[in-house]
Amino acid sequence: MRDAMPSHVRLIATPRFLATGRSYEDLKFSMRVSPQALGDIIIETCIAIQIALRDFIQIPQSEKYWKKVAYEFQEKWQFPRCLGAVDGKHVQIKKPANSGSRYFNYKGTFSVVLMAVVDANYEILMADVGKSGRISDGGVIKNTSFYNSLIEGELNIPPPERLPGSNKTAPYVFISDEAFQLTDNFMKPYALSVLNNEKRIYNYRLSRARRVVENFFGILVS
Question: Its domain of life (predicted)?
């Protein structure tokens, strides 16, 4: 009976494959592992990583944790009552066989979408990957379990509270760009056609806070 593949080989091969997109045939030369074995151990290792990290990457389960997220957005990015910055990133793929234009996106490539909610520290709170790149970000988010739980009121989001230094009451919200739909718990920038001084300041603050999700994708790619 052959010896099992050492764990350090699995942990080197899997991130290298995921990060570079190299084929098994190409990867076999640097890993000294057959393409057939790589096909097995990379899938097995991805499943093991997902199981090991599922308790570390999850949507907050209590009002207390949500308030902690909002406090950090207020302290670091001066945007109160923010529960996370939301955006999607197209992950380029080869056109799947017999898929037609299903995965063809507005950039002229084929892709799936990585949708993420990120906190003030560039740490991921929610990830959903695999939706067709043909669908807009606003459409992708509506097909996630996160959004369904938000609409059904199952996320334990704190009730509206007064804004700091103000008598106005405001809900806790997620922030996004123009591609997403405006709701009670989803905020996006004002359109350029309606800007005044106050709205321009709001857009600046929102864009500044929302930058964490753009930076997160940059960190992930690098």
Answer: Eukaryota
pLDDT digits (tens, 9 = 90+) for 2-61: 567 788 888 888 988 887 878 888 888 888 888 898 989 899 998 998 888 877 777 888
Quote the CA–CA distance of 153 and 139 in Å, as a whole number: 20
pTM here is 0.80
Bridge partner residues of 183 (DSSP): 186
- The DSSP output letter for 57 is S
Is residue 7 within 8 Å of residue 41, measured between CB atoms?
Answer: no
Q: At 90, list the tokens.
A: 């197209």
Beta strands in the chain (DSSP E): 82-92, 111-118, 124-132, 161-162, 169-170, 173-175, 186-187
Pull the structure tokens for residue 128. Answer: 């959903």
Report the distance separating Cα 171 and Cα 159, nearest Å: 6
